[in-house]
Design goal:
By secondary structure, this protein is an all-alpha fold. It has 13 helices and 2 strands; from the N terminus they run H-H-H-E-E-H-H-H-H-H-H-H-H-H-H.
Length: about 270
């Protein structure tokens, strides 16, 4: 029975996508356009230079394309299924999270796991096509591939907790629209989605090291393209793991406090 409850929770948001073919077509079109544009952009930027900020053209293009693909891991539309925290807070249905057989924190985690597995299928398919087309470089060795996979897992774990903290903010503010907008911008900027962090000033890079965003994407992709050598991988993985522990403790505390503030709002 517990396995059945877990399966039902994990498939909530992916089912909304799979039952709406036009939405899937739009995702495919948008992902294709993004990959083509970023690949063209970075190829053009390196048209008259060999190496910039320690990156070759192939490394820069690989980084940019992988960043686009990685962004698909958690870009599902929870609003369509009316299963976002902010919607539950508005309609007063958040109380049902505390009446289900699954605790709210476990339901949230299982739902996020389902979303990430669905997003991973999209990212993996895009990676296979980009790799076959020669748009991205393959890992330099099996060891690099293994370290990258572990780092990517830790990075997504960190990202899960960051998004969880943002949703938990609804228990105090009821709405988190502004927080989500700030989070998306900060995540894309400080994790290196817009551009690798090495292109930014030293003070900006130093500032980003004190935040968890860099651990979500910049570290895994830097390991993949060789910007961070394998000799330094252990230290970077330890930092990612530390952020996982810190954020896990924080969100556990917030779940405990949030349970005391459950109220019914709106309809």
């Amino acid at each position: 029975m517990a396995v059945l409850h877990a399966w039902r929770a994990a498939r909530v948001t992916p089912l909304g996508e799979l039952h709406t073919p036009p939405r899937m077509t739009a995702v495919l079109l948008r992902l294709t356009v993004q990959v083509v544009l970023v690949a063209s952009l970075w190829t053009g930027l390196y048209a008259h230079t060999g190496t910039t900020a320690g990156l070759t053209r192939d490394q820069a293009v690989t980084y940019a394309v992988l960043a686009v693909l990685a962004s698909r891991l958690r870009e599902l539309d929870q609003y369509a299924g009316r299963d976002s925290v902010i919607q539950h807070m508005h309609y007063g249905t958040i109380v049902y999270w505390y009446l289900r057989p699954l605790p709210p924190q476990r339901y949230y985690a299982l739902r996020a796991l389902g979303e990430q597995l669905y997003g991973f299928a999209w990212a993996l398919g895009g990676y296979a096509v980009a790799l076959a087309a020669g748009v991205v470089e393959p890992p330099r060795s099996a060891a690099v591939a293994g370290v990258f996979a572990l780092s990517l897992l830790l990075g997504q774990w960190v990202l899960y907790y960051i998004m969880l903290v943002t949703d938990q903010w609804c228990f105090w503010a009821l709405r988190n629209n502004a927080a989500v907008m700030i989070l998306v911008f900060a995540q894309n900027l400080l994790s290196g989605v817009y551009a690798p962090l090495w292109f930014f000033p030293d003070w900006f890079v130093t500032l980003s090291t004190f935040m968890p965003f860099q651990a979500t994407l910049s570290v895994p992709l830097s390991l993949y393209i060789g910007r961070i050598p394998l000799s330094d991988a252990a230290g970077q993985l330890a930092i990612q793991a530390a952020w996982v522990v810190i954020l896990a403790l924080l969100t556990r505390f917030l779940w405990h406090r949030a349970a005391r503030r459950v109220i019914s709002q709106g309809g």
